[in-house]
Write a structure and sequence with these properties.
ferrochelatase activity; precorrin-2 dehydrogenase; Sirohaem_synthase_dimer_dom; SirC_C; Rossmann fold; oxidoreductase
């Protein structure tokens, strides 16, 4: 079976995490950086999760999982050390067509959480379809070396330029041509070697030249 890769917008979406241990804490932190409304169900919490609850970043119901916890939920992650609970969460989600990930239990997952390289708005996601999280982690480390934080700044710059072109260039054909040519191999190599100023200059030149063409 081939998996369909997708990036979800979780802003203000209710996401449920079942479990309050270290693994659950990692999952909550990943959801938090995406702007999700996070609900945690667990009898106990790690100090880190408790701190997030105290700061109002996470909603917490102290107790064991109940089917009613799924109400209005967009996405679920089950990260307990209790197989019966994890299985119940997965089964309930499948019946309700709610996407669910059960940690370290691929057959009960409707999605897998990839290993991700974060570079600002640029995200590189690696998945082995649950076959080898270790391999995904090794690939992530290699990509972290190949794609320095400079790529994050450059991606944000491109976003600004793209918005300016869309607002200022009224001719659709010329606008499409500019956007298509904003980045090439030479520009990519400049960013990779840390020469951000020259990379930005090339992008600005593309905009200037194309706007001046009749």
């Amino acid at each position: 079976m081939e998996l369909y890769p997708i990036f979800l917008n979780l802003t203000d979406k209710k996401c449920l995490v079942v479990g309050g241990g270290k693994v659950a804490e990692r999952k909550v932190n990943a959801l938090a950086r995406c702007g999700a409304k996070i609900h945690v169900v667990s009898p106990q919490l790690t100090p880190g999760l408790q701190d997030m609850v105290n700061r109002g970043l996470v909603m917490h119901r102290r107790g064991i999982y109940q089917t009613s916890d799924l109400e209005d939920t967009f996405l679920v992650i089950s990260a307990t050390n209790n197989d019966a609970t994890n299985h119940a969460v997965a089964n309930d989600c499948m019946k309700r067509n709610i996407v669910v990930n059960v940690v370290d239990d691929p057959p009960r997952c409707s999605f897998f959480v990839p290993s991700v390289v974060h570079r600002g708005s640029l995200k590189l996601a690696i998945s082995t379809g649950g076959s080898s999280p270790r391999l995904a982690k090794l690939i992530r480390k290699r990509l972290e070396r190949d794609f320095s934080p400079v790529f994050g700044e450059f991606t944000d710059f491109l976003n600004t330029v793209r918005k300016q072109v869309q607002e200022q260039v009224t001719d659709p054909n010329k606008r499409e041509q500019i956007l298509k040519n904003l980045v090439d191999e030479t520009t990519f190599d400049l960013v990779k070697h840390g020469d951000l100023d020259k990379a930005k200059e090339r992008v600005n030149n593309v905009c200037y030249i194309n706007r001046c063409q009749s």
